[in-house]
Amino acid sequence: MVQAPTDKLDWANIGFQFRDLNGYMKYTWTEENGWDKGTFEKDSYLKVHMCAPGLHYGQQCFEGLKAFRDDDDHVRIFRPRMNAERMMRSADMAYMPRVPVEVFEEAVRRTVEGNLEYVPPKASGGSMYLRPVLFGSGPCIGMDAAPEFTFVVFGMPVGNYYKDGVKPVDAWVIEDFDRTAPNGTGATKVGGNYAPTFGPMKEAKKRGYPITLHLDSKTHTYIDEFSTSNFVALTAPDVNGRRTFVTPDSSTILASVTRLSLEDIAKKLGWQVERRPVKFEELEQGHFAEVAACGTAAIITPVKKFVRGDKVINIGSGDQQEIGEGFAQLYKEYRGIQGGDIEDTFGWMWPKEGL
Ligand SMILES: Cc1ncc(COP(=O)(O)O)c(C=O)c1O
Q1: By residue range, what is the domain housing residue 283?
Q2: Which of 32, 36, 155, 273 has the highest count of CB atoms within 10 angstroms of its CB?
Q3: How confident is the model at residue 1 (pLDDT cuts 50, 70, 90)?
Q4: Looking at ligand 1, which atom is closest to the CA of residue 179?
Q5: How far is CA 300 from CA 39, 164, 173, 178, 327, in A?
Q6: Residues 137 and 181 in one domain
Q7: Domain count along the chain
Q8: What is the pLDDT of residue 246?
Q9: 139 shares a domain with 96
Q10: Single pTM value for the model
């Protein structure tokens, strides 16, 4: 059922924004019946009870993943199982029914199938961003779980994040707000982890810092992650061209699917992969040749400078205009697998035969 992209959209300029497409998948859970079989819905407005714990108590979570075209216009989704499993952990955290992996995968697949013409052409560098959301939708005013839950998956075409090339950015280190607490919710994708970062992120943007870094909330000594992405770093290559890929070992960061995949690619390249507590002062001591943020939206965002209070910490020269060689290598492999240019030896693209 190969379907070419519609010619009604200007693929070079679609950006990152919500668009009404043909429809989306919606599932309902009740105590009596569990999850229903799901329906393809058209109306983007949901009817939700005003007493829904999803609205009052933040009983909700969400996910984000992407679908890509290859040269033959087949469409495949990048590692949906990983997001399904992560959403189960978020569901457990907010006392919600788990969406089984098969239901999650089916929801994602049917959403993409119902909107195939909106998956951007491969040449545009774009993709279809998919947003699964799970929340307590039935009425309950007491501090308790909702009697009914809603799970929706919708999609939207998004442009190439880096249509003018991957550009290194400056990062702001947040000191006056902690994203999560020790033993808190940081490793899950519950909405409550996000709204409180909007203010600090906006403030940082105003000052010229597109991304914000969180330190461990207990001591502000170790690096946790960025507000919307994981922290990753590379050492300089050794005489054999091998590097070490370093990422914080922290119980309060999200298990980024992008980061886990980059780790696998780094291993494939013969590099070392280290997951360990990373002290902020390692940046000052020049331990890393390259530092970046990684996540589904941009994949890799190189960071050339960190600003913590009145301290400025340069990574390398601090004024690089391009992605470093190490991350460029990882990025190329990653995008190559997503677009079908590099053999998917990991079995990441799903379904294998394409949609
Ligand atoms: C806090 C946080 N960390 C990391 C990530 C990156 O995760 P992924 O690579 O699965 O998109 C995200 C985005 O989902 C995020 O919100």
Answers
A1: 169-338
A2: 155
A3: low
A4: 1
A5: 35, 14, 18, 24, 8
A6: no
A7: 2
A8: 98
A9: yes
A10: 0.96
* Ligand 1 contact, 229 CB (< 6 A): yes
Asked whether residue 43 is assigned to any structural domain, the reply reads yes
Q: How far is the CA of 235 from the centre of ligand 1 (A)?
A: 23
Mean pLDDT of the chain: 96
Looking at the CA of residue 297, tell me the nearest atom of ligand 1.
Answer: 11
CA distances from 100 to 41, 87, 103, 160, 162 (A): 21, 9, 5, 31, 34
pLDDT digits (tens, 9 = 90+) for 202-241: 999 999 999 999 999 999 999 999 999 999 999 999 999 9
Ligand 1 in reach of 115 Cβ (< 6 A): no
The span from the CA of 305 to the CA of 317, in Å, is 9
Cα–Cα distance for residue pair 115/168, rounded to 1 Å: 34
Separation between Cα atoms, residue 351 and residue 242, nearest integer Å: 33
Out of 212, 256, 301, mutate this one to test ligand 1's pocket (max ligand atoms within 8 Å of CB): namely 256
Do 115 and 190 lie in a common domain? no
pLDDT in tens, 45-65: 999 999 999 999 999 999 999
Q: How far is the CA of 2 from the centre of ligand 1 (A)?
A: 30
Q: Is residue 85 located within the same domain as residue 174?
A: no
Q: Considering the domain boundaries, does residue 163 fall inside one? A: no
- pLDDT at position 78, please? 98
Confidence of residue 163 (pLDDT cuts 50, 70, 90): confident
The Å distance, Cα 297 to ligand 1 centre, comes to: 9
In the reported structure, the alpha carbon of residue 62 is separated from the centroid of ligand 1 by a whole-number distance in angstroms of: 11
Residue 184 shares a structural domain with residue 133:
no
Residue position matching structure tokens 């939708």 = 137
Span from the CA of 35 to the centroid of ligand 1 (angstroms): 27
Identify the band that residue 164 occupies on the pLDDT scale cut at 50, 70 and 90.
confident
Domain co-membership, 37 together with 109: yes
Question: What CA–CA distance (Å, rounded) separates 90 from 191?
Answer: 10
In short, whether 258's Cβ falls inside 6 Å of ligand 1 is yes
> 230 in ligand 1 pocket by Cβ < 6 Å?
yes
C-beta 191 within 6 A of ligand 1: no
Distance CA 104, CA 132 (A): 8
Kindly report the protein residue whose alpha carbon is nearest to atom 16 of ligand 1. Answer: 228
In the chain, pLDDT over 70 holds for what percent of residues? 100
Is residue 355 included in any domain, yes or no?
A: no
Domain boundary among 158, 183, 210: 158
